[in-house]
Amino acid sequence: MLQIRYDDTFKKEISQNRSKQLKNEPFTIWDATIIQIKKKKYYLLVEEKTGLSILLTRLDPKLFNCVLTELIRSYNFISSKQQRKIIQAASADKVSFYKNAKTENSQAKTIASLINSHLDEYLEMATATNLEKDEVANLVLKSAAIYVLDENLGNYFVDKMMEEVTTELPVKSQKPDQHYQYWDLERRFPDFAAFQDYENQPISSNTDIINKIKKINQSMIDQFIETSSVSFDPVDPQIALTNFANDFLLEKRIRFVTSDLGQVIPYLWTIFNQNDLDENTAFELGHVFKNFYKFLARVGMIRSTDHEYADLSIYKLMDDFTFTPLPDSSPSDEEMLAVIREHPDILQKLFHKGIISEEAFNMLQGMLKQMDQHSPEKSYDNRERDQATYEIRATLKHFKPSTWRRFIISGNSSIDTLEKCILEMFRADFSRMFDLQNIKTKERFENTENIDSISKLIPLSSINSENTKVSYFHEKDRFILTYGYGSSWTFLVTIRKITFDNPAPAYPKILSGKGYGIIKDDDELAEILCLDEDGEPVEDGSRLNEIVIDLNDFDKDELNELMKKYKI
Predict the structure, then answer these.
(1) CB distance 404 to 514 below 8 Å
(2) Alpha-carbon distance 85 to 165, whole Å?
(3) For tag attachment on the chain, is the N or C end more exposed, with fewer CB atoms within 10 Å?
(4) C-alpha span between 540 and 547 (Å, rounded)
């Protein structure tokens, strides 16, 4: 709901939807006033806590939503996921009005006065002839131009937005479980869990805690630098990371590097805007933080999906700043690999001289390995078990109510088919990447399409699931099937029996099961949709897009019909 605290200029505007009490939720309370710009009436709305300002030609929730969405998307000091959170929190389907008792001191009045006193300058920035017929684009431009009028106002807005987003709408990291495949470094510094109760508290009254956190930060940064084989010249990672962890994050409230995965974006945005950095320095600064979040994944502080989110967010921010593109004559991947094959020592030389990054080094090594390991001729199977029937149980982890499937599949089916049929049984929409990992051997199986993307983290460890058969697996083998970047649904997969008594099924067949499966939600962690308002698991259903889903619903016949598409 769009909650408007109106002033005296609204007396003739309001006839209904008056409210005596406001719901105090993020980005829902707006001070408002009416302003005349070139004899045209505009409604100026200013968000209570951040000063976010929006100009409208009419108080229409649909128009508000459109302008809000485009305006928020233009703020590249906020990560894309947090932009979506703001849009979701502020979007409205109706308007309610609340009389503002402090009309003379409202932010809306102050900003309206600023526009009127600098009207010519404002119109010069807020007018574009090519946007005159596009109402939304025109209003977005007029709204964005407000902060350019006064540097202090602009800085105040950015600072307050950063504070509100990190406090109210953080992108939370999650600890990986014991089967986490990228956790390959032993952490040499304490966890932040001991200080979790202090998160987001003011720093002024917690001096001793701040000092302890700074010591942990320093140990963490030291280990990152010691274990990194990459040169970040001309950037000093010690200075950059200390400034981020001990100064930026601890400026006003207690925050850790794991408190909000989006907080690195406003930090880098501030550095990029306040310093006249050359392209190489800006690139290497971003490279420091991309590698730092990868390091946090390697020591088990965050998941690989968290690292990938931070990595992509940093990349997008860097891309917004003008970096010199590679010339059109740049060699293709195939041409580079051909040269490297002829000169196998060239990669090591380029890496040690700092000409290519660690990520590029790993990626190229992985591509070479994959050309051998994942070639069409290479396959993994056991011919004796190709005709066997595999009985398998798959359980959706960290989810209530209990949700599982018991099914049979032919040993002659590919691992790719196994992965896909399990996801299909749990109603996945295949909008995310997935892989299967053997808990004991750590072998990871992924399809050809995914290999290039995931192999940037560990390029040499995966086996092509399309060229590997279920017969490769043994009885009692246990696996973790991971689905998605962000939601990260995980399944425990167990090979219960391998039998030869009857002919193997032509396609997978579900024998029994329980629970509905995955609830689809592209933007948020799907787990939250299974909790009620008090944070307790929902036992009877969950509401998504106004459709009630019975989480206990299990239709074996319906799901088995879907299995027929996986016929051998």
Answers:
(1) yes
(2) 9
(3) C
(4) 13
**Tokens encoding 80:** 């894309």
Residue 11 zone, left/alpha/beta (φ > 0; ψ -120 to 50; rest): alpha
Distance CA 443, CA 421 (A): 20
Q: How do strand 542-544 and strand 489-499 relate by DSSP bridges?
A: unpaired
Contact 32, 46 (CB under 8 A): yes
Distance CA 117, CA 111 (A): 10
Yes or no: say if 220 and 214 are a contact pair by the CB < 8 Å rule: no
DSSP character at residue 290:
H
Tens of pLDDT, residue by residue, the chain (568 residues): 778 887 777 766 665 556 566 677 889 889 888 999 988 999 999 998 999 999 999 988 999 999 999 999 889 899 888 998 999 889 888 888 887 665 555 788 889 999 999 998 888 887 765 666 788 888 999 999 998 888 888 888 999 999 999 999 999 887 776 555 567 788 999 989 889 899 989 888 888 999 999 999 999 999 999 998 888 888 999 999 999 999 999 998 999 999 999 999 999 998 988 777 777 788 889 989 999 999 998 898 998 888 888 888 888 888 776 444 434 444 455 555 555 555 555 666 555 545 555 556 666 666 665 555 444 444 577 888 999 999 999 999 888 889 999 999 999 999 999 999 999 999 988 877 888 988 887 788 888 776 655 544 444 457 888 889 999 999 999 999 988 754 568 999 999 999 999 999 999 999 999 999 987 644 333 333 444 444 444 444 444 444 457 888 899 999 999 999 999 8
Residue 247's alpha-carbon distances to 190, 200, 250, 256, 361, in angstroms, are 20, 15, 5, 11, 32
Question: Nearest CA to 386 among 508, 465, 468?
Answer: 468
Say whether domain 2-168 belongs to CATH 3.90.1070. no
* 59 vs 351: CA distance, rounded Å: 58
DSSP 3-51: EEEE-GGGTTT-SS-B-SS----TT-EEEEEEEEETTEEEEEEEETTT-
CA 200 to each of CA 24, 71, 167, 366, 445: distance values in angstroms, whole numbers, following the listed order: 19, 27, 7, 41, 40
Domain boundaries 383-566, corresponding CATH code: 3.10.290.30
